[in-house]
Write a structure and sequence with these properties.
This protein is mainly alpha-helical and 183 residues long. The protein is built from nine helices and no strands. It has helices spanning 2-20, 24-40, 44-61, 68-92, 95-112, 115-132, 135-151, 155-171, 175-182. The termini are far apart. The model has no long low-confidence stretch (mean pLDDT 90).
């Protein structure tokens, strides 16, 4: 019971700060934080609500910014909104909308030259194609993720990509190939 009260207080705290926050970027970060809070509770309708609020806020705000460093920061936070939205739509079975959001995140990370994030985006896109049943595209995206993760020595990213490849083979009933990827 106490953990629930703490979570409610945390949610209320974020809501209260949001009401008084004037900085658009800070508001978007708080909205993304709310989105993650709901994602952790599998409440995808609210993930989408807060993710879209953050996305719209940032898409409008970015046109007013002249400083390149601040533009990069806004883009990073915007990509987080797209990832949250992609995760929510993926978990709801709306694979095409999930893919749209994951691809938007990928575009941002490629512009920012954030290789590790690009690898994660390819993992997300590959996983979404796997869930959609498009195994060929899933494997293409996941192989791309592996190349990027190897270049960056990202062991966690590699583990996720190999696991996702294993899931592709598993879903095609190619259990020998799946086991090879899992181990």
């Amino acid at each position: 019971m106490r953990a629930n009260a703490q979570k409610t207080n945390h949610f209320d705290s974020i809501q209260n700060i949001l009401k008084i926050q004037k900085n658009e970027l800070a508001k978007a970060k708080l909205l993304n934080q709310l989105s993650i809070e709901f994602k952790n509770k599998n409440e995808y309708k609210d993930v989408i609500k807060y993710g879209n609020e953050a996305r719209l806020l940032l898409e409008n705000y970015i046109s007013d910014i002249k400083n390149d460093e601040e533009i990069s920061e806004v883009k990073k936070v915007l990509s987080e909104s797209y990832i949250n939205l992609g995760d929510a739509y993926l978990n709801r079975g709306d694979y095409d909308i999930a893919l749209t959001n994951f691809n938007r995140s990928l575009q941002i990370h490629e512009l920012l030259k954030d290789k590790q994030a690009v690898g994660r985006d390819y993992n997300n896109i590959g996983y979404a194609y796997q869930k959609k049943g498009d195994f060929s595209l899933a494997l293409q995206m996941l192989e791309e993720a592996i190349i990027i993760h190897e270049e960056n020595n990202d062991k966690e990213g590699l583990a996720i990509a190999y696991n996702n490849i294993g899931l592709v083979y598993w879903n095609q009933s190619d259990f020998a190939a799946a086991l090879k990827e899992f181990f």
